[in-house]
Amino acid sequence: MPDTIFHKIIRREIPADIVFEDEHMIAFRDIAPQAPVHVLFVPKVDFATLNEVPGSEAAVIGRLATAAARYAKQQGFAEDGYRIVMNCNGDGGQTVFQIHLHLLAGAPLGHFGTPGG
Ligand code: AMP
Question: What is the spatial distance between Cα 24 and Cα 96, in angstroms, rounded to a whole number?
Answer without folding.
Answer: 19
